[in-house]
Amino acid sequence: YAPWCPACQKLQPEWEKFAEWGEDLEVNIAKVDVTEQPGLSGRFIITALPTIYHCKDGEFRRYQGARTKTDFINFISDQEWKSIEPVSSWFGPSSFLMSSMSALFQLSMWIRHCHSYLTEKTGMPVWGSYAVFALATLFSGLILGL
């Protein structure tokens, strides 16, 4: 979820009611703020918010059903999750591919942070920051090419 997302804000009360049932259903219920953990957006291929996953025995299934407390409870208690195909091992969050995607998302956030620092803290013009990153990209390419 993201705190600024209207759909996430709408889901919040139902999710909290469902979370109260976690102990009775013998499941852990959590939420992750993708603005605080951008690497997870890449690792789980988050393209829409809120996105809900069910994890059991290392298998991840994307929940796309109705979003009420009762529907969530039925999904777990009636084992409806068994009818959903698990995410392919290629696209599983612990795969090399998704770990790489996560690293790219984290790199993009670091670059954004550096750009903000250069323009806001040091007073460098925006075009100057772009020039620094362009030169860094060219230099990195030359080093990797050698």
TrEMBL record:
MF terms in GO: disulfide oxidoreductase activity
Gene3D superfamilies (alphabetical): Glutaredoxin (3.40.30.10)
GO cellular component, one term: endoplasmic reticulum membrane
Transmembrane segments: 123-144
Record-annotated Thioredoxin domain positions: 1-81
Protein keywords: Disulfide bond, Electron transport, Endoplasmic reticulum, Membrane, Redox-active center, Signal, Transmembrane, Transmembrane helix, Transport
SUPFAM superfamilies xrefs: Thioredoxin-like
Topology versus the membrane: Single-pass membrane protein
Keyword Cell membrane: no
Subcellular location: Endoplasmic reticulum membrane
Protein name per the record: Thioredoxin-related transmembrane protein 1
Organism: Phaethon lepturus
